[in-house]
Specification:
The complex is a heterodimer. By secondary structure, chain A is of the alpha+beta class. Chain A contains two helices and five strands. Chain A has a single domain, classed as SH3 type barrels. In chain A, 15% of the residues lie in helices and 37% in strands. Chain B is of the alpha/beta class. Chain B is built from 33 helices and twelve strands. In chain B, helix 16 runs antiparallel to helix 29, helix 22 packs across helix 30 and helix 25 packs antiparallel against helix 26. The radius of gyration of chain B is 31 Å and the shape is elongated. The chains are: A alpha+beta, B alpha/beta. Chains A and B meet through helix 1, strand 2 and strand 4 of A and helix 4, helix 12, helix 14, helix 18 and strand 12 of B.
């Protein structure tokens, strides 16, 4: 399961990252590293880019990059 | 709490720092409240200038604490010292003392948003590697309280190796005095310690620094190991030898293996940060209020996008509806002033210069100050509240279709006020190609200086009737805005598939929570913008007005004056009362029109008339257009002069004059195709020396401003030509 497949209100924790894309590396600098928790908040019209909550702050990224983050679902996200 | 660490500074050092002037750089994440704090600390003792030889605005201010004068430098907001965009490179260069004309700062004021310690500590950690004296300002402590976030300041201070941490609320000034004290004691106090989060990196840096000469900072070596060199750091490369590169590569391979260095750095740093946060930060679960629910709903795709359009509609509505009374007042005032001046000096060249040249010319531009103030106010509010970032997010997909990313939206929205700050706002775009494409699209956005000519022509020639509940005049104006947007987007697309071809820019952006803009910060920014505008009106536009006046006034023809005197005598002999004064007025207008026709401006206009004749323009319009190239605002003033209405150049009479203007054969000049052609010419043509200058500054070349000018003028001409020719068939 990747970050791109989270549904509205669901939470996930990053397990592994495909780091080849430089934009993914940039996102890691912004805090999207293994162990970070993200909650899917919303998307723009057409489902892209996506918006997540990361440590109480909102971050937006495109689907293309979200697919490089493998996550596991957190149960309390429901 | 923070005061406990004051004792670590010895008395001797304090006496030294009292005499010396410390230079402190303010560094922090974007939206961390850095600028609010800077304004709070410096008050009005600040100025904006440029770094010598660079294209970058330098915000410098002074703060005085107990007779110690500190120089504070506000840097652009950054997330890390790895220079990613131009803004970040500038910040890093200033911090490391690499920017020409600056030295290594004597201390750092690190600004960390208490509600975003996670990202704030990342930058802080890198800054600590600089081994400079440092104070941390923990901002937004009120917002953190509201969110149920509690931070143990003492524990945090201990984790940071004893660096002083001052919680502040920039908007109210709470905690700022304690921060001031800490800053006063900063120069000369011991440097920050390195956090021991990644011993292998520290060891590698140490090894490399023994082998390499020419680096001044360990952080420079750290960045060289992690980022390598980008093309912008050419001067660093020059200090480098081939063998040094091999050494760096070796160290890099040992440290990172096959993983990208940046990814490894992020993993190490955030691991440390999570440990710190676990100890210093407590969170009580937030209470979901109805505001939060509304907020979440507003951010959903469809309501969010509709909201964006509603916000933009309100902005433009305000610009037109609210500004009108103020504009009328200024207009009346400036005309009264011109008439008053004309009465004080004897009739002749000086009176004409004062009333027709200076007051009419500069006045016709000052009239737009209310609109510009309102537009800038809204743009500053949108930016300060964090909404522009959300606009970028909502528009990313649309911008992708022209080869740009949502980040290009922010400069474009700013360009509705003025393309100059819009072009400067492109600095956040990481890739140079995307930056230039955005810069060349921005001047197409309908700026406030285009409004006068649009307003004049629309008021004169578009009937004030309604279609349903829509006003036709407003609709035409809206169409012109859309035309500008469309042309800008098309330009970006064309550039991105030709000269600036490259991959689609990425998009990754923090979306700051909606924040109530701080009145003080907003007002200070607004005053700054007004100052810039008035300075421009007082220099550039003033000069243009005087030059245009001189070209339209000289040389004086003796024969015209003789003829006027003759005609006046005849009229006085044959007419009486009101018909006499009407005839005399008519004669004077005719005489000034004749004088103008043989003036330098008139001759120049007649000379270039053949060029613009295919667009349906006579020599007067041609002359006004030529005069408008340095600054398009002057066009209305020039039209007022050349259509011989002089002092009475208020909109209604000028509009009347335009309506009745004819070719020598009696046919009307201002036909519908000609007017639409003229509007299109103004929508496209780049008549603004300031925009050209800023493109030159920002691209560091003449190639792009020259290209932009030729390109926009050509399509302006061709557009007007096509509309006139097709419409006149």
């Amino acid at each position: 399961m990747t970050l791109a497949s989270l549904q509205y209100g669901q939470k996930g924790i990053i397990r592994s990252i495909d780091t080849r894309d430089p934009v993914v590396q940039r996102l890691m600098v912004l805090g999207l590293v293994e162990g970070a928790e993200l909650e899917y908040l919303s998307s723009a019209i057409g489902g892209d880019p996506l918006e997540f909550r990361l440590f109480d702050n909102a971050i937006s990224l495109r689907k293309e990059q979200a697919q490089h983050f493998t996550i596991s679902l957190l149960s309390d996200g429901g | 709490m923070a005061k406990s660490s004051v004792t670590s500074v010895s008395v001797d050092e304090i006496t030294v720092s009292r005499r010396s002037l410390g230079r402190i750089v303010i560094v922090g994440n974007p939206n961390s409240g850095k600028s609010t704090l800077f304004n709070r600390l410096t008050g009005l003792h600040q100025q904006t200038s440029n770094y010598p030889g660079a294209t970058v605005e330098k915000h410098v201010g002074t703060a005085t604490v107990d007779k110690i004068i500190l120089e504070l430098i506000d840097l652009p907001g950054i997330f890390s010292l790895g220079a990613h965009s131009l803004e970040e490179r500038i910040a890093v260069d200033v911090i490391l003392g690499r920017m020409s004309g600056t030295n290594t700062p004597s201390g750092i004021l690190a600004v960390v948003d208490m509600t975003n310690l996670y990202q704030g500590l990342y930058l802080l950690q890198q800054l600590m590697g600089l081994e400079l004296p440092m104070v941390v300002a923990l901002t937004m402590s009120d917002a953190a309280d509201a969110k149920g976030l509690r931070v143990d300041i003492n524990a945090l201070q201990a984790k940071l190796g004893g660096v002083i941490v001052c919680p502040v609320v920039g908007t109210t000034g709470q905690g700022v005095n304690a921060l001031r004290q800490a800053l006063a004691e900063l120069p000369g106090s011991p440097p920050s310690d390195l956090p021991a989060f990644w011993p292998e990196l520290n060891k590698a840096v140490q090894q490399v620094s023994v082998q390499l000469k020419g680096f001044t900072h360990r952080v420079e070596i750290e960045r060289a190991l992690i980022d390598g060199f980008s093309e912008s750091e050419q001067d660093m490369l020059d200090r480098f030898r081939e063998s040094d590169n091999i050494r760096l590569d070796e160290a890099r391979r040992q440290l990172f293996g096959d993983e990208p260095p940046l990814a490894t750095e992020a993993r190490y740093r955030y691991k440390w940060i999570r440990e710190v946060l676990d100890e210093v930060q407590q969170k009580t679960p937030p209470i979901y209020t109805w505001i939060a629910r509304v907020h979440a709903w507003v951010n959903r795709p469809v309501p969010g996008t509709i909201g964006l359009f509603v916000v933009m509609a309100i902005v433009f509505q305000a610009v037109f509806a609210w500004a009108t009374p103020m504009m009328d007042a200024i207009d009346t005032g400036s005309k009264a002033f011109g008439n008053f001046l004309a009465l004080q000096v004897p009739e002749g060249a000086l009176a004409s210069l004062l009333s027709d040249g200076v007051v009419a010319g500069v006045g016709s531009v000052i009239v737009f100050l209310p609109q510009i103030v309102i537009l800038f106010l809204f743009i500053i509010l949108l930016e300060d509240s964090g909404y522009l970032a959300r606009a970028a997010y909502l528009m990313d997909r649309a911008m992708r279709s022209v080869g740009l990313s949502g980040q290009s939206i922010i400069p474009m929205i700013s360009s509705f006020a003025c393309a100059v700050p819009g072009i400067m706002a492109t600095r956040v775009i990481p890739n140079r190609r995307d930056r230039i494409a955005t810069m060349l699209a921005a001047p197409f956005m309908t700026c406030s200086a285009r409004l006068p000519i649009y307003a004049l022509l629309i008021a004169a020639f578009v009937p004030a009737q309604s279609i349903g509940w829509l006003n036709l005049q407003g609709l035409v104006l809206f169409g012109l805005y859309l035309l500008g947007i469309f042309a800008g987007m098309l330009t970006a697309l064309l550039l991105k598939v030709t000269a600036l071809r490259g991959p689609n820019p990425p998009f990754a952006l923090m979306l700051p929570e909606f924040r109530k803009p701080n009145l003080r910060t907003v007002l200070m920014q607004l005053v700054n913008r007004i100052k810039v505008f008035l300075r421009r009106a007082g220099t550039v536009i003033f000069s243009v007005a005087v030059i245009v006046w001189a070209l339209a006034y000289y040389p004086r023809s003796g024969t015209v004056e003789l003829e006027l005197a003759e005609q006046q005598t005849i009229a006085e002999a044959s007419l009486v009362g009101s018909s006499l004064s009407a005839a005399l007025r008519q004669l004077e207008h005719q005489a000034s029109a004749d004088q103008l026709a043989q003036s330098w401006l008139g001759r120049a206009g007649q000379m270039i008339e053949p060029v613009f004749k295919p667009l349906g323009w006579d020599w007067r319009i041609s002359a006004a257009v030529i005069a408008g190239f340095p600054a398009r605002e002057v066009v209305v003033a020039v039209l007022g002069t050349v259509y011989a209405v002089g002092n009475e150049a208020d909109e209604a009479t000028l509009a009347q004059r335009l309506k009745s203007a004819t070719w020598p054969d009696g046919s009307a000049i201002f036909t519908l195709p000609m007017i639409f052609g003229l509007l299109i010419f103004y929508a496209f043509c780049l008549q603004c020396a300031a925009t050209l200058a800023v493109i030159h500054r920002e691209t560091n070349s003449w190639r792009w401003p020259v290209f932009a000018w030729l390109y926009m003028s050509t399509i302006g001409y061709l557009g007007a030509f096509a509309v006139f020719q097709l419409g006149s068939v």
